[in-house]
Amino acid sequence: MSSADEKTYDVVVMGAGSTGENVADVVVRGGLSAVLVEEHLVGGECSYYACMPSKALLRGTEAIEEAGAVRGAAAAVTGQQDVAATLERRDSFTHDWDDAGQVQWVEGAGIDLVRGTARLTGERTVVVTRADGGETTLTARHAVAVCTGSEAAVPPVEGLADVQPWTPREATSAKEPPRRLLVVGGGYVGCEMSFAWNALGSQVTLFQQGDRLLPGAEPQAGDAVLASLRDRGVDVRLDSEVRAARREDDEVVLTTDEGEVRGDEVLVAVGRRARTTGIGVDTLGLEEGEYLDVDDTLQVRGLPWLYGVGDVNGRRLLTHMGKYQARQAAVAIVARARGEEVSGADWSPHAATADRAATPSVVFTDPQVASVGLTGAQAQEQGLPHRVVEYPIGSVAGASLFADGYEGTAVAVVDTEREVLLGVTFVGPAVAELLHAATVAVVGEVPIARLWHAVPAYPTISEVWLRLLETWRG
């Protein structure tokens, strides 16, 4: 290191969210030096504005409803949910938006941390503008990993950006429930936050431009979530386009196909965009605001020293997939630094193959939606020989014990030539914990003939696996 303002490391990581943390951790474990650059909170979106606070908001409602679905236990459920205590519990998971604990972990892992705004200025060079206005130049011997993630997208609807809409950040960190919440977008975030704030006392209206909620999932998932939201009093409007927005005093007014709708806050949950503006990608001939184009080892095409890891590449915008990509990219960086061969072949130690073939996800609504791999529609689009089989989860003994009147559906997409699973979806209460078995089966391409020997314990909800296989066999 030449001076306080010029430092050299093996790897420079831009962004200290969970993806950046994992890149730095794995390369340090591999014997390289690494520095993280972060302008906000170490730990990133998941820790403070996404996964953890959103699930903390949802968990209390889920626990109450699970108890209420069991005769005997239901009699013990009295009174209303303590909203203040739920919000306090949410705050405990974010550590009141204080990253001291995460910083301590970084230091303990042997990773350096520089606070400030990072921008690429040339090959393997990053300049950090610190809070004091000074600059630190970081040079990477081997690689720069861009882990700057994504941010909420606000569509070009007249006046929408001007009404100071909630993004997922505000939706998960709000200090009290709004009396009336308008939600634009019926994907993961829109559905989860509609459930959460409805249960905490808000009157929620959800606008979805298309004819289905959760449009990328199996149809059974969107149908079940729609029915549940409406049963709880959420006003769900399908095929509804928001055309304009304005504020009148303390109200938000949305103009839709059906007229004007008024609320106290509006959450925009229509997708994400790459956080690549202002970070210097243009100095490398790349387009600002666009996702980084990477190969399966997460190396930016045409720039062998640059890696785009996590949301910033647009492959799979999920925390666990960002961390997975981080592990794969970091192992590739270490191997290349050692002069070892790196393979981008499917399922190699360096390739993020699961992005394409086996991405697991859970929507923490009630019912939950847990899925991995391809849907039937996706298999059809890809021209794969397949058959879709489904089974009502409530028909297995474990489900009937879990909740009286349990309702749910399991859907499997089977490759009819190779007789392996292409994808699995579970819809129902508490199905998230069924998902990893499905993920292992899809990743491992376990033959159906071998799955017959994976005997589910009785009486568990996992017995639905046997019923799916029996349905497949006919």
From TrEMBL:
Co-factor: note: Binds 1 FAD per subunit.
Keywords of the record: FAD, Flavoprotein, NAD, Nucleotide-binding
Pfam families listed in its UniProt record: Pyr_redox_2, Pyr_redox_dim
Domain of life: Bacteria
Binding of FAD, residues: K55, T148, G149, S150, D311
SS bond partners: C46-C51
Residue intervals of the Pyridine nucleotide-disulphide oxidoreductase dimerisation domain: 359-465
Stated name of the protein: Dihydrolipoamide dehydrogenase
